[in-house]
């Protein structure tokens, strides 16, 4: 499989992850809120048992939706840019997207620990891990190509002939 297709597939897998369950907030082992990545981006997070909108306000200085949005944008950018073959841009998109997701998980976990006084737990779902690993795989695949741009189909890079 050509590296261009590997890159496209990795970014597509990451983008699909945002449509799957991303996080679940539980209280005493019972799920209270489950959200997909898309719901986190749009702010339309519903409580699990009743389906009513969550009325709790987020802390104004912590905007988790922007981090998830940045990661999703990197996934979509990567899918479209994979057709052009700009490997450095693709490697950066994978790295920035993965970094945004890691920052999101760290900030959200810290926020739940501080605000929940140990009553709440946060679990990251399959969508989160699919998006994270897709972005990491895309970053790694494109970094390997960016480092060796002359290498084609697994052949070693050609060395220039020395004069004489």
Summarize the structure.
The chain is mainly α. It is built from five helices and three strands.
Task: Characterise this structure.
α1 runs antiparallel to α5, α3 packs antiparallel against α4 and α4 (87-116) runs antiparallel to α5 (126-147). The model is unreliable at 51-61 (pLDDT under 50). A hairpin with a 2-residue loop joins β1 (21-27) and β2 (30-36). The protein has a single domain (3-147), classed as Butyryl-CoA Dehydrogenase, subunit A, domain 3. It is elongated, with a radius of gyration of 20 Å. Helix content is 55%, strand content 12%. A three-stranded antiparallel β-sheet has the order 2-1-3. The longest helix has 30 residues, at 87-116. It is mostly helical and 164 residues long. It has helices spanning 3-17, 37-42, 64-81, 87-116, 126-147, and strands at 21-27, 30-36, 120-124.
Helix-strand pattern: HEEHHHEH
> How many separate helices?
5
CATH topology description:
Butyryl-CoA Dehydrogenase, subunit A, domain 3
Spatially, the strands of the biggest sheet line up as 2-1-3
The helix fraction, in percent, is: 55-70%
- Largest sheet, strands/sense/barrel: 3 strands, antiparallel
By CATH reckoning, the class would read Mainly Alpha
Structural class: mainly alpha
Give the overall average pLDDT.
79
Please state the second-level CATH architecture.
Up-down Bundle
The total count of strands amounts to 3
Q: Radius of gyration over alpha carbons?
A: 20 Å
Portion in strands = 5-15%
């Amino acid at each position: 499989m050509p590296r261009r297709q590997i890159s496209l597939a990795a970014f597509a897998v990451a983008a699909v992850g945002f449509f799957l369950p991303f996080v679940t907030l539980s209280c005493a082992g019972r799920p209270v809120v489950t959200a997909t990545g898309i719901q986190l981006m749009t702010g339309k997070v519903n409580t699990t048992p009743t389906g009513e909108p969550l009325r709790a306000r987020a802390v104004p200085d912590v905007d988790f939706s922007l981090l998830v949005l940045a990661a999703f944008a990197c996934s979509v950018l990567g899918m479209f840019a994979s057709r052009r073959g700009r490997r450095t841009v693709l490697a950066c998109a994978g790295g920035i997207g993965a970094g945004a997701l890691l920052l999101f998980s760290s900030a959200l976990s810290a926020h739940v620990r501080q605000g929940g006084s140990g009553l709440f737990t946060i679990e990251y779902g399959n969508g989160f891990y699919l998006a994270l690993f897709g972005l990491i795989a895309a970053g790694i695949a494109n970094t390997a190509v960016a480092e060796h741009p002359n290498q084609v189909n697994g052949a070693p890079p050609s060395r220039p002939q020395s004069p004489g």
